[in-house]
Amino acid sequence: MAKKTSLKDIAQYVGVSTALVSYVLNGKEKQARVSQQKVLEIRQAAKLLDYQPNLIAKSLRKGQTKTIGLIVADISNPFFADLAKKVEEFARELGYIVLFGSSDEQEYKSSYLIDVFLSRQVDAFIVCPVSGTENQIKKLQQTGKPVVLVDRYFPGLPADSVRINNREIAMRAVEHLILGGRRNIALLSYQTDLAHINQRKSGYLKAMEKYGLAVNPELIMEVNYANLVPKVEQKMLAAFNLQDKVDGILFATNSLAIAGLRVIENLGIKVPGDISVVSFDQSEVFDFYYAPLTYIAQGIQSLAENAVLLVSKRLKEQIHARQYMTTILDAKLIIRESSKIETSLQLNGSISGLIQPELRAEKIG
After folding, report:
1. What positions does the domain HTH lacI-type occupy (predicted)?
2. How deeply is 99 buried, as exposed, middle or buried, from its count of CB atoms within 10 A (0-12, 13-18, 19+)?
3. On the chain, which terminus has fewer CB atoms closer than 10 Å, C or N?
4. Which helix (H) or strand (E) holds 334?
């Protein structure tokens, strides 16, 4: 094994003191009044000798590791994969390294990842929490490390969070279906206590109520995360066998949409001729479907950027000075072939084709 280059090696190569090399490589050359020529010689020597700084020792001296622990709910979901990629990109721009893990919607795995990241001495956490982990987050907050919840949150837990306006955008999506002449509209969602999913259900109900449309409880289809595909098929077959034909559907996530579209295809139901379809989240699958899907774009780039910026802000503050902040992004409704509006049935001025994003922030607790 080749000997690792040390500060002393660089000092001997250039003919200066080890202390002077340390000042230059730590960016303190002005403080030590080192000439530009000597700075250049030292940096060139460090590169030539392949000097690699001891980051562990450096982090111990500064009290920071410049790492962020990121826990997403399910990396197999393209939404979370893209979110993780964007978080890593924005964090890198600010000089942070991201350690990543997927809880796979499991409480025990979330707890395991938190413990692992704490043992790795990450400076802060960005977490997309799973159901039942409120106490885990509360305990994590008590360590004093910044914790930012992204996409999901717990209404009863004061915390920094970045998310979208789930209720409002779900209401706009269902309103879009109604204005396109659809009346017997279904919802496929998860059976969960997670607030963001329940807000989407609330938005669906509010839109139906606004236009005086009765809601058949059997059209509110809820499934568990486990064994998703067979359960979606079972629920949708029951709904599509009802006397009143389902003519519109809102999928609460892209995973549900992909499973649901298989059922629609197998039943020979035409989109948008027989049924109009809208889904939360974007997926490449939507683009290749014969009727490209209308979807709700959650603004993954903005979610990631705001989460990283909030973490960075917290790391520069004193713990006692922190005041929790909720950042809510307005999502976009991207209208495409799967929900073509029948112009004759559209109510003028009630809905716009695209909803421009806005950013709201409020302080809590």
Report:
1. 5-62
2. middle
3. N
4. strand 332-334
Residue 250 pLDDT > 70: yes
* Average pLDDT score over the chain: 88
Measured distance between the N- and C-terminal CA atoms of the chain, rounded to whole angstroms: 55
User: Does an H or E element contain 147, and which?
Assistant: strand 147-150
Element (H, E) at 44: helix 36-48
Residue 181 phi/psi, 5-degree rounding, is: 95, 5
Cα–Cα distance, 196 to 84 (Å, whole number): 19
Strand 276-280 relative to strand 124-127, pairing:
unpaired
Three-class SS of residue 276?
A: strand
| pLDDT of 329 strictly over 80 | yes
**Nearest residue to 181 (alpha-carbon basis) of 353, 347, 345, 293:** 345
User: Within 10 A of 225 (CB to CB), how many other CB atoms are there?
Assistant: 17
In one letter, which amino acid is 308?
V
- How many residues can be counted in the chain? 365
Q: What is the pTM of this model?
A: 0.79
Cβ atoms of residues 353 and 316 within 8 Å = no
Query: What type of residue is 40?
Result: L
Position 122 confidence tier, pLDDT thresholds 50, 70, 90: very high
CB 165 within 8 A of CB 143: no
Query: Taking each helix axis from N to C terminus, what angle separates 36-48 and 7-14, rounded to the nearest 10 degrees?
Result: 120
- Residue 224: pLDDT band by 50, 70, 90 thresholds? very high
**What does the angle CA 153 – CA 176 – CA 340 come to, to the nearest 5 degrees?**
125
Tokens of 87: 């978080």
> How far is residue 156's CA from residue 163's CA, in Å, rounded to a whole number?
16
The pLDDT, as a whole number, for residue 321 is 61
Q: What tokens were used for 6?
A: 């040390």
> pLDDT over 70 for what percent of the chain?
89
Distance, CA of 177 to CA of 275 (rounded, Å): 10
Q: Domains plus CATH for the chain?
A: 7-53 (1.10.260), 64-164+301-329 (3.40.50.2300), 166-298+331-357 (3.40.50.2300)
pLDDT per position as a tens digit, 101-121: 999 999 999 999 999 999 999
